[in-house]
Specification:
The complex is a heterodimer of chains A (298) and B (260). Chain A has 298 residues and is mainly alpha-helical. Chain A is built from 13 helices and no strands. Chain B has helices spanning 45-52, 75-80, 98-105, 118-138, 154-166, 184-199, 211-217, 235-240, 242-249, 252-259; strands at residues 5-16, 19-30, 34-38, 60-65, 68-69, 83-85, 172-176, 203-207, 220-225, 228-234. Chain B has a six-stranded mixed sheet, sandwiched between helices. In chain B, strands 2-1-4-5 form a four-stranded antiparallel sheet, with helices on one face. The chains are: A mainly alpha (298), B alpha/beta (260). At the A-B interface, helix 5, helix 6, helix 7, helix 12 and helix 13 of A face helix 2, helix 3, helix 4 and helix 5 of B.
Chain lengths: 298, 260
Amino acid sequence: MFELLSPYHQFQLSSLLITLLMVLSVSMLFEAGIFSLAVGGVVAIGGYGAGLLSTRSEMPLMVGLVAPPVLAALVSLLLGMAILRLRGIYLALGTFAFAQLVVIVIANWSFAGAVDGIVGIGPGLSVWSLLGVVVVICTLMELVRRSRFGRATRAIRLDERTAAGVGVDARRYRLVLFTIAGALAAFAGACDAHLVGVVSSDQYGFSLLVTVFAFALIGGTGHWLGPVAATICFTLFRQSFGYSGSGWEQVGYGAALVVIMLVAPNGLSDPSLWRRLRSAAGGPGRRRVAASSVGGTR
Amino acid sequence: MSDETLLRIEDVSVSFGGVAALQAMNLQVGRGEIVGLVGPNGAGKTTLINVITGYYRPDAGTVRLGEDEIVGRSPDELARLGVARTFQSLRLFEGTSVLDNVLVGRHTAFRGSLLQLWGTRRWEERSQRAVAMELLDLVDLADLAGADVSNLSYGTRRRVELARALALEPRLLLLDEPTAGMSGAESAEISDVVTTISASGVGVLLIDHNLKLIADACETTCVMVSGQPLVTGPTSIVFARDDVRAAYVGNRRKRDSDVS
């Protein structure tokens, strides 16, 4: 591959794409109304899986990138069967307990380096392959969004009981999505381990959750473009101003979340937000809304 | 009763805590039959629909759909077996279009998987949209297909919900106060739609407080009081009974005679 980007920019772009994969894994669960904090745990499974396979075995890179997501999918499936009967804040707490459990286990596992973690993990996918993966994932999400599966997922988020009443197997949908999201997050974790070269248990704590959830919440439900745009904007911002990792970064996310919750509680990709903006601009959207309300009074 | 029984409810009892919502309830609906279900508030009409659609599990009794025992099946399973309903509290998928609401109802009619060819998928999506548009035409909403359901009037929203239930191509249709909040003309239109649907062989259980609608649409009517059937029979005979009038509108005649 010709050198389009300097190594520094390649690293920054790879880091952005990996964050994007984590955010997409969270927002695909949001689409079905599932608020799960398990992402911290499955990213750790991916990172440690890739780290162990790369430093403690002679397996090729591909195995290190594929095996952890498969394991994470299995773990997510079992966890989902046990925990997806919970809803709302109870589900968030249950999945958070899982994420913390994974972190505590790896921090005390001497084979995986305990608190020192694993160092010397070789390089992984090139930035262009990562970009390819992100494009494929977004394409798949768009295909699902336009299909009956996307419609059923939205219906589950809006009103699960009613969705069941018209034949949507909500339990199965939630479980399948939970499993896929787990695999995707673990893949992101594996890529991250290869990119940074180091994994340690403190990397998968609360600040990872805050970052990923801030992007996913600001992006909102309804379209994958929202979370993608939010992630790109915030990452570019923090990379160019050098706030990354400082206390100010978390303060910034908090402030952005407050503003979004006030202006658009369903995030940037909420269709009703765009309808409102269009009608405020006096565009064709306004006339269409007026016409439909006249029709509605017949 | 028609010769072919579609729904057979026998000795069904449900209680919440210590409150008996249904006690030894019996009811049958045949193919192509419209059965009216009336009774004062709290008589257990909606509870009965929730039992038939799998939202509540009865403590005792059997519910049969055709030959199948359906107690213990989940709501989505029953929807796939051809049981469709509307909700008394009117539940639409807010913030989405009229057409999308009906298309969720077509969910079970889609055949293909995500992996099917792009062309086939587009073709299937288009044909399901066509079916949904026909249903919207039936309830006279075709020109509002793209409108957000959250912006529509109450009666219009009721018609969207009816179209969504019909989208399942049900064998059995359970309507929980479909004309509540509607004008007389709108109610008559709903009555026409329900009659058309049942003529194609669908069994309909119709709950409504509009007794004129029940009298016009239903050959058979069941009056429920306190979770039990008070009387079931031909509508004109049922409505003429004194005990039915007493249960439904209060014991007015008796009070009148007390005064005089």
